[in-house]
Amino acid sequence: MVMALTPAAGVQGSLLDSPVGVNLLRPPGAVEEELFPAKCIRCGRCVEVCPYRSIVPLDARYGVHAGTPAVFVAKIPCYLCMKCVEVCPTGTLRRIALKETRMGLAEIDKHVCVTWRDEGLCRTCYNVCPLKEEAIKLDELRPYIVEEACTGCGICVHGCPVAGERGRKAVNIHPIYSTRQGRG
Amino acid sequence: MGLSRREFIKRTAALTAASCAGVSLTLPQAEEAQAFDADEWVRGSCRLCGVGCRVELGVKNGRPVALRGVPDSKTNFGYLCMKGMLFYKLMGHPDRLTKPLYRKSKKDKFKEISWDEALDIAAREFAKAVKTHGSDSVAYYGSGQALTEETYLFQKVMRGGLRTNNVEGNPRLCMASAVGGYLTSFGADEPIGSYADIEQATCFFLIGSNMAEAHPVLFRRVMRRKLDNKDAVKVINADPRISPTSRVADLHLQFEPGTDLALLNAMAYVIIEEGLYDEKFIGQYTTFRMGKKEEVSFEEYRSFLRDYTPERAAAICKGNITPDKIRTAARWFAKSNATMSMWTMGINQRKRGVWANNLIHNLHIITGQLMKPGADSFSLTGQPNACGGVREGGGLCHILPGHRLVKKDKLRHQVEDLWGIPRGRIPAKPGYHTMAMFTAVNQGKIKAIWINCTSPAQSLPNADLYRKGMAREDLFMVVTDIFPTKTTELANLVLPTAFHFEKTGVYGCTERRSQLTWKAVDPPGEAKPEVWIVREWALRLAKELDDPVIAKCVAPFVGKEEQYELPEAIWNEYTQKLTKGRDNDLRGATYRVLRQRPDGVQWPAPTEEWALKGGTYKKFVRGMDPLADEHAKDEKPYQFYGPAHPDKKLWIWLRPHKGPEEMPDAEFPFYLSTGRVIDQWHTASMTGRIPELMRANPYAYVEVNPRDAKRLGISPGDMILVESRRGRNLLPAKVYEGPVEGMVFVYWYDQHEDRLINRVTKDAFDPGSKEPEFKICACRIKRVSGPKVLKPYLASITT
Amino acid sequence: MPIGGFVITVTPSKGQQAVRALSALDGVEVYGSGGDGEVIAVLETGTSKDMERLVDRISAMDFVASVSLAYLNAEDEMLQQ
Amino acid sequence: MHGASGRGGSRNYDRLRLLVQAGAFALLVATPVLNAHFHISFLQGWFQSFSIGHLWFVSPLEGIESILTSRTIYIPLLVGMVPTLLVALLLGRVFCGWICPIHFFSDLSDRTIRLFKGRRILRDRLLLPGSLLWASLVGELLLAMILGAPIFVFLSPPGLVGRELMMLVIFHTLVLEGVVVAVVLAMNLVTRRMFCRYFCPLGALLALIGSRRRLTVSLDREGCTGCGRCGRICPLGLDPATGGGEDPRCWNCGACVAGCAQGALRFRWSSRR
After folding, report:
1. For residue B88, what is the DSSP state?
2. Does residue D147 form part of some domain?
3. Which of B481, B530, B718, B721 has fewest C-beta within 10 Å?
4. What is the CATH number of the domain that holds C54?
5. Is the CB of C25 inside 8 Å of chain A's CB atoms?
6. Distance (Å) from the C-alpha of residue B786 to the closest C-alpha of chain D?
7. Which range marks the domain in which residue C31 is found?
8. Do B141 and B207 reside in the same domain of the chain?
9. Cβ within 8 Å, pair B13-C7
10. How far is B378 from chain A (nearest CA, A)?
11. Domain of B320, in residue numbers
12. Distance linking the first and last C-alpha atoms of chain B
C-alpha cells in the first residue's frame, strides 16, 4: 500500500479547521493553531506593521479564521524583521527572537530539486536563506536543511526557481510546529 | 492542516531510504514534474558565463522547450547552473526587440522602420562622420558575448574599411589585466593549461574570485576534487569578502581591499627565504625583470622581496591576515604536488591589475608549479566569448586577429595582405581603449558609435559621467541587442538581433576551447544575425563613401545565406588565413570538425587531424602541443614560443605593492566593492527576464559587516544610502558576515537608477591594461529608513 | 519511540506479496517499492529493542533478502534517558 | 447648576460630534497609509486594538472574548483594556456615540436623507424590546465559548470597517466580510441605529460597564415643556424627558441636548452614583 504523505495545503474541511498548511503559515511567534483563532482579536496591527506585506489577513472564506494573519510564503515570504511580534496586543504572536522563530520547517524535495536530481547546480535556497550556513547548509553543493535552525520563514520557497506539483516548489515549508501535537 | 512532527520524521525516513535505494516514491511531490519530449536536441554551448558548459537545446515544433546538460561533456560533466538551465526562455520572450527602431533626436520616441531604412541611416551617419570629422570620429564597442564571427567581421570593416582602430569591447572591463599579465609573464595570452588540471591539482589558490557564484559549474569540479580528497587537497581562498567560495577553503585569507600585491609578494618572500623554489626550473626557463628591457638577477629579486616579510605584509593587509597564515599559504602553494591558481575580477579590476596577475604568475614560475599536470596559473573569464572572439579575434583597440599587435608594422601588413587590401589601410596607431573611447564620446570627438551586445550605460564605472556623453545630441549611436537595456535608452538606432541558438557561430571559452552553436530556432520578428547586419551595412558604407576597399572587406561573404553559410565563410577566413602561424592556430577547427567534436577544440590546433583529437590540453609542452615541437630550438621539454617574449622565456616580475586609486578617508570611510550573485548575470538584461531567476534576486542590496551595522544602527532590510564622490545609490541592507569590516559590497546587476551601483564606482584604470578599478573605491553609508517594499526594474523602450 | 527508514530487498517476483505481508505487520508502514525488489518501509516501535526484534522478524521472512537501515530517529528515547 | 447656555451654544454638540467622528475616521484611514507607505508605526490598528506610540488600547469585548475562548491571560492584553474600561465606566457608551464609524456613517446618511426629504426627524418602523441588546451580548459570548472561536469577527462592525479600510489602502482590495457592514447600515432604513439598539455586542458590553457612569444627560424639569422632541430626536429611541438620559443604553451623543429648543437638557457629571 502506498499512501500520500501530506494533506493538501489549504483545503478547507469545515469553517473551524485551521487554514495552515504547506507554504501557508502563521507569522512568527504564533501560538498553536488550537488557540490561535480564539486568542487573536483580528486587530490587524501585525498586518499594518509588516513592511514587506508578507502578512495578509485571511478573509471570510477561511471561516472563523477570517481576519487572522497568515503568510503565503510562495508569494511573499517572511523576512523576519520581527516587528509583528512586538505589536501583538494579545500575545497571539509571542515576543520571540528571530532565531527562536518556528513558523514551520523547510524540506527539500529531493525528487524535484534539480541539484539533488543531479541535473544542475542551483543554490538559490541556500543563497537567499537569512540564516545561511545555519539553517541551510551545503553538502557537496547540495543544499540541506538544518532542522534545529530553520525558522520556516519561507524565503527559500519564494526564491526556489523549480516548480513542483500543485504550486509547490522544490523546497517547501511544512507547518509541523503549528499544532500542540507538533510541538510536543 | 499541518504535518505532525512524528509524521514529518516518518516522511523523512521514507524519503531517505528511497533515495538510498534509488526508488522513486509515488509521493504527490515526487511525481515527475516535467516530462520533456522534444523533437530534437541541438548541441551548443551555454550563452552565459565563461565556463563554456556544453548544453543541448530541446526543440519541439520549432520552439525551444528545454535545456539540458550532457553527462559526457568535458567542461561541465552535464551540470548546469539555473541560468544555463533556463536561458532558453529568452528565445520567445515578449520583451524581445523584433523591429529596427529609429529616432533622429534622443528626445524623441522611437518609431519602427524597415531594415532597408535602418541600414541606410546607419551607413549615412557613419559616412557623414568620417567625411566631416575623419576616420577616428567613428567607433565600435563590442562584447565578449558576440560570436567570434561577429567580432571578426565588425573589426575588419572598422579597420580595413573605415581605417580606424577604434575597435573595443567590454572584455576591456573584465579581463584586459589578465591579458596583460599573460603577455608580460608568459609571452603569450591565455592560460597554459585546461580545466582538466583541476582533477590533478592538490592545492588550489583562489584569489579575487567568488567562483562558487560566478563560475558555479567549474567550482563544482574544484569542490569535488577537494571533497573526494579531503586531506590530500588544500584550498586557499584569498578575498576581502567571505563568499560561498570560501566554504570549501582550508584557509581563508581575508585582507583589506587593495592589499593583494603585498600578500602575493610576501608569499614569494616565504618561498624564496625557506628555499621552497624550483632552482632548476628558474635556471632553465626564466629571467627576472624590472622593466621590459631591464633584466635583473635572482639576488636582486630576493632583496626586493625583503620589503615584504610576512610581518610587514600582515600589517598592510590587515583583516584576518597574520604572518603565520601567509607562511602556511606559501608553504602549501610551494610544497603541493600540483598547485592551480584561479582568479577573476578581484585581481583584474584593479588599478594595478596587470601587476597582480604578474605576481600570481611569479608564484607559479618560481615554484615550478606550472607545466606539470594539475599545476597552472589559470585566469577565469566572465563572458562566453571574451577569449575566443575578442582576445583572439582582434576585438580590442591595440590587437589584430591572431594575437597580432597593431603597432607592429610587420604584423599589421600581414593582416592587410591576408585581407587583400592596400598596405597602410589599417592605421599604425592603436585606437581609443574603452575608457578613452567614452571620454572621447564625452568630449564630442566621436560622432558615431556602434554598440553591439553590451550595455555600457550600466556597466561602465562612474556611469553617470559617461551616460552624459552617450546622451549627446551630436553623437549618433547604434545599438544592436536582443532586449531593451539602459543603453538602448540613449540610442538613435536600435537593431534587433538573433539570440544564441537563433544563429550559428563559435564561442571560445576560458580554456582555449572553441565550441560551435548551431542555429536551432528562428529569431523572432525581423531580428537578424549580426553578421548579416554588418555585411549589409558595409556594402552601403562603400557606396556612401565611394570606397571600393570597404566593399572588398565583405566581398568574400556577399550573397551567402546568413544563417549557416555566412558565419562559416567568415570563420574559414579567420581561422585558415589569420590564425595560420600564430599561437592560437585554429586551422584544424573547421565547422566540419567542430560539428563532429561534441566538446569543440582547444587551440593550438593547426590540423584537422589534431583538432579531431580535441586539440591541445597544455600549451608549450613538447609532445602535447604541436607548436611546441614546431618551434623547438633545443631539447628542453618546454618551449615558450609566445610571440611577446623574444627570449622565449618566462619573466619573473619585480612589482612593488601599490594600493587602490581611492582610499577610504574621514569623509568616505568605507571601501565599496561590487560583484555577482549566482542567479543573475552582468546587467541582468537576460537573467532579469527569467521569472524564476528574478524572483530569487529581484533587486540588489548592500552587504554590510555585522560589526559596522551595529555601529551605524543598521538592521537587515533598512534602506541605506551608499554615496561616493561620483554618485549615490539607495539600497536595502543585508547584514552579513561577508565583507571585511570597513567594506561594503553591492551586486551590480540591478538596472534601477537607485540601485545602479556603477553610478558610484570609480573610473580609475590600470595604466597597463586600461582596465578600470571597479572593485575598489571609497564610499560612505547612511541609514535612511526602515525596510521598503521595492519593485524589480528592467529598462524598456517606448515607441 | 524510534522511527527508522528501511530499504527491504525482497525477491523481485514476490514484490506484491511482500508488500502485503509487510504492511500487515504492526509498526510497519510501506511507503513504496522499486522494480528491482526494493521496498521502502518506515518502522515505528516503542523502543530500540522492539525495533531490533521487528527487523529480525522481517529478515526471517522467506522472501526477504536483506533489511538495511537508511535513516533512524531515536531522539525521544535519548531524551528519556 | 445651569450649564446649558441657550440654543446657540448647545447645538454645537451635533457639529462637535461630527468633527470628532470625522477625525476618528480620518485616523482610521491615515493609520494604514502611514504604516504601509511611510513605515511610520506611531499610530497602529483600529478599534479592536489601537496604539499611539507605546500606549495600547484594547477593545473590552474582543479582549474578554479572547480570554474566555482561549482561556489564557496575557498581561499586556489586560493592561490594554484598562483605559477603554475606564472610559466606559466613567462615560458609558461614548465610543458608540462619538467615535464608532458605523454611527458616523449613519449620522452622515441621516443628514443626507434629511437633506432630500426635508424632514427634520426620521421615523423608526420597527421597534423591538430593548433587552435584546443584553441577549445579543450573552448570546455572542456563549456562542463564542461553544465554538471556541470568537464571533465578533463578523459581529463587530467598527472592527470590520477598520479592516476593510486597511485592505483597501494596503492591498487595494476589499474582503467579503465587509458585507456585514453594508447589512448593518441597511438596517438603518428600517429603524435608526437598529443594530446599535438591539444587536451590537460591543455596544451592549460598553452599556453594561457604563450602567453606573458618571456622565449622563439630565433634564431640567422646570425648563421642560414636555414637547417630546428629544425623544423623537434620540437615535436610539430613548426618551430623555423620562429618564432616558440615565438609561444604560444611552451613548451620550448629545443629540437631544442639542435638539432641545428650551435648553432643558444638559450633560451632567455626578461625582458618585
Report:
1. G
2. yes
3. B721
4. 3.30.70.920
5. no
6. 7
7. 3-80
8. no
9. no
10. 22
11. 176-380
12. 51
Give a yes or no: residue B598 inside a domain.
no
pLDDT means over runs of 10, chain B (799 residues): 63 73 53 54 93 92 85 87 88 93 95 96 96 95 95 96 95 94 94 95 96 90 88 95 88 95 97 95 94 91 96 95 97 96 95 96 96 95 92 93 94 95 94 96 96 96 96 96 96 96 95 94 95 96 94 94 94 95 93 93 94 94 92 90 92 95 96 92 93 88 95 92 96 92 95 96 94 96 90 87
For residue D168, the chain A residues in CB contact (below 8 A) are none
The answer to whether position B300 is within a domain reads yes
Are residues B305 and B265 in contact, defined by beta-carbon separation less than 8 angstroms?
Answer: yes
Residue in B closest to D37 by C-alpha: B788
Cell 414636555, residue located: D226
Measured between beta carbons, which residues in chain A are less than 8 angstroms from residue D172?
none
Q: Which one of 3.40.30.10, 3.30.70.20, 3.30.70.260, 3.50.50.60 gives the CATH number of domain A24-183? A: 3.30.70.20
Written in H, E and C, the secondary structure of D194-253 is HHHHHHCHHHHHHHHHHHHCCEEEEECCCCCCCCCHHHHHCCCCCCHHHCHHHCCCCCCC
Find the closest chain A residue to D69 by CA distance.
A38
Distance linking the first and last C-alpha atoms of chain D: 17
Q: Are A21 and A72 in contact (CB under 8 A)?
A: no
Q: Which chains have 3+ CB pairs within 8 A of D?
A: A, B
- Give chain C's domain count: 1
Residues spanned by the domain of D91: 7-210
State the smallest CA–CA distance between residue B58 and chain D in angstroms.
41
Q: What whole-number distance in Å separates Cα of residue B312 and Cα of residue B610?
A: 50
Q: Is residue B53 part of a domain?
A: no
Distance CA B384, CA B757 (A): 23
Predicted ipTM of the assembly? 0.72
C68 touches chain A (CB under 8 A): no
Interface test with B, best of A87, A101, A122 (most B CBs within 10 A): A122
Going from N- to C-terminal start, the domains of chain A cover: 24-183
Does B130 share its domain with B190? Answer: no
Positions of B marked active-site: 83, 174-175, 345, 382-383
| D39 contacts chain B (CB < 8 A) | yes
As a whole number of angstroms, the distance between CA B140 and CA B151 comes to: 10
Cell triple for residue B629? 615541437
Domain count for chain B: 4
Domain assignment present for residue B85? The answer is no
Query: How do B376-379 and B339-343 pair as beta strands?
Result: parallel
